[in-house]
């Protein structure tokens, strides 16, 4: 049972344009959501997070939007840069489970120069 | 400040052999997680420890997999006997439980079982 789903395995955008990565979840107990970025041959690194009490969190070129009623979140990267090319994982946790994160399948983002 | 350290980075073995993956978490972190990365399921949680105690091992695929955390600075994930379908990248991660869920990952151990 995949509680966190990223339905797009890959996304390709032009440099300077907006990248939008999507994530859906099914567990209504999730109250904290994170995005991780992974380069080849490296471990995932934390990118940005959002608590369920918010619907938007912005950090530089990265913004995460949360729609609790739709159980959907998205990561916007604008403007996209070639160095953003990586696999992006969506993750969610519930306060009751401590730090246990449930990850999605990942989306490979390619930003073309 | 050293991050999470995993070894070996790469392991190639034959079916039936025992495989041991090792992890040193970040000093001061009290939670440790073993994940496996697959194309179909992304990052799957295998097991996690809190204060060296296994809390949830429901993600461990079968009895061939076992994990230990004898002290706060070391954990192992063992596969015995290994099978080709175990080929994957195995990640160790640690966190301070009060950190709001942010995990710090090691670079992973790529396992190939022939």
Could you state the oligomeric state of the chains shown? Answer: heterodimer
Using a beta-carbon cutoff below 8 angstroms, give the protein chain pair with the largest interface and the number of residues from each chain.
Answer: A-B, 25 and 29 residues
- Helical fraction of chain B: under 10%
Shape of chain B: globular
User: N- to C-terminal separation of chain B?
Assistant: 36 Å
Number of strands of chain B: 11
Q: What is Rg of chain A?
A: 13 Å
The SSE string of chain B, one letter per element, is EEEEEEEEEEE
* Uncertain runs of chain A: none
- Residues in helices of chain A, as a percent range: under 10%
Number of strands of chain A: 11
- Class by helix and strand content of chain B? mainly beta
Main β-sheet description of chain A? 6 strands, mixed
Structural class of chain A: mainly beta
Rg of Cα set of chain B: 13 Å
Strand content of chain A: over 45%
What's the number of helices of chain B? 0
CA-based shape of chain A: globular
Number of helices of chain A: 0
Report mean pLDDT of chain A, rounded to a whole number: 93
């Amino acid at each position: 049972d995949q509680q966190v789903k990223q339905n797009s395995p890959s996304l390709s955008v032009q440099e300077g344009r907006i990248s939008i990565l999507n994530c859906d979840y099914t567990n209504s107990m999730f109250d904290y959501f994170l995005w991780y970025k992974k380069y080849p041959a490296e471990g995932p690194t934390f990118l940005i997070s959002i608590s369920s009490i918010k619907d938007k969190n912005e950090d530089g070129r990265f913004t995460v939007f949360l729609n609790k009623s739709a159980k959907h979140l998205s990561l916007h990267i604008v403007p996209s840069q070639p160095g953003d090319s990586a696999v992006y994982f969506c993750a969610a946790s519930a306060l009751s489970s401590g730090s246990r994160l449930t990850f999605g399948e990942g989306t490979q983002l390619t930003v073309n120069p | 400040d050293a991050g999470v350290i995993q070894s070996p980075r790469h392991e190639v073995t034959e079916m039936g052999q025992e495989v041991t993956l090792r992890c040193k978490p970040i000093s001061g972190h009290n939670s440790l997680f073993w994940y496996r990365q697959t194309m179909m399921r992304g990052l799957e949680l295998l097991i996690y420890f809190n204060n060296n105690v296994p809390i949830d091992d429901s993600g461990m695929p079968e009895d061939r997999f076992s994990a230990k955390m004898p002290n706060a600075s070391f954990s192992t994930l063992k596969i015995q006997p290994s099978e080709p379908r175990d080929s994957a990248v195995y990640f160790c991660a640690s966190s301070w439980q009060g950190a709001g869920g942010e995990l710090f990952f090691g670079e992973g151990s790529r396992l190939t079982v022939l």
